[in-house]
Amino acid sequence: LNAIFSPYYNAKEEIDGVVVVLQDVTEQKKLDDMRKEFVANVSHELRTPLTTVKSYTETLMEGAIDDRETAMEFLAIVDSEADRMAFLVRDLLQLSRFDNKQVRLSISEIDMNEFLETMVRQNKIHAEAKHQELTFEPYEKEVIIFGDRDRVGQVVNNIVTNAIKYSLDQAKIKIYISEDDTYYKISVKDTGMGISREDLPRIFERFYRVDKARSRAMGGTGLGLAIAKEIMESHGGRLTAESEYGKGTTMTMWFPKERPVLEYEQEDAGA
Ligand code: ADP
Questions:
Q1: Rounded Cα distance, 245 and 193, in Å
Q2: What ipTM, to 2 d.p.?
Q3: Where is the Histidine kinase domain (predicted)?
Q4: I want to staple 148 with a disulfide (CB 3.0 to 4.6 A). Which of 55, 101, 105, 188 is the partner?
Q5: What is residue 53's three-state secondary structure?
Q6: Which tens digit of pLDDT belongs to each residue from 129-179?
Q7: Strand 144-148 vs strand 107-111: parallel, antiparallel, or unpaired?
Q8: For the whole model, what pTM was predicted?
Q9: Alpha carbons 258 and 271: distance in angstroms, whole number
Q10: Is 193 in the pocket of ligand 1 (CB under 6 A)?
């Protein structure tokens, strides 16, 4: 609570009392704290690769450059740290476009059976590298959703990539479609490490990772699901997760069956 005191004067300009205004600042403080934490996170995430780049460059300049093999090895590290910073900036920019309501969606009708078939074909190579089985069972009937193909593809890719990353070799990853009265649901179910009950509600937060070191080592920025959630909400849908620790996770994208009226839709969309 915030209290503001001001004197109350009577007709003779004498102080007659005090007016106290009480303001509830809990909500504002929470937002403030979140913003501070976000800035601290961004700084840390940028500083980590920068420190690595700096130390390898210094070692190179101190003489390591004369040994070609070592030099190449160090430069490869510098190169991948630069990639990491670029990914982080790309993700931050995309989030800030959502925050500033500058996102423009180009909505068209997407045949999900066809779309997911293609997505699976593109991701198969990553699953096969870990001897995982990635499958899609086409739905028994035609499923048309209203979406921005690139953005919807981004969400599917993010979820499938996570399923592959956070599952061990030999895991099974299954994509399937279901529906209720108002939504088509695209689910990605894995038999991976799962997420504990305490972590589960937090995985959509910016920079939240169950295991920071592991996620970073696998190239994650910790922003993927936060962006995926924004994308789903901008489509009038949502993104949910169910998981059992040690057993596996199911991520579900919900798309409204009726064509939604969208805040971010491009004027000429569908034309
Ligand atoms: P990251 O870049 O770290 O993968 P995400 O926002 O995509 O960031 O995911 C946030 C965190 O949620 C991950 O770091 C991971 O701990 C957890 N997570 C996401 N998907 C899965 C999954 N299929 N199985 C287990 N954990 C997952």
A1: 6
A2: 0.98
A3: 41-259
A4: 105
A5: helix
A6: 999 999 999 999 999 999 999 999 999 999 999 999 999 999 999 999 999
A7: antiparallel
A8: 0.87
A9: 18
A10: yes
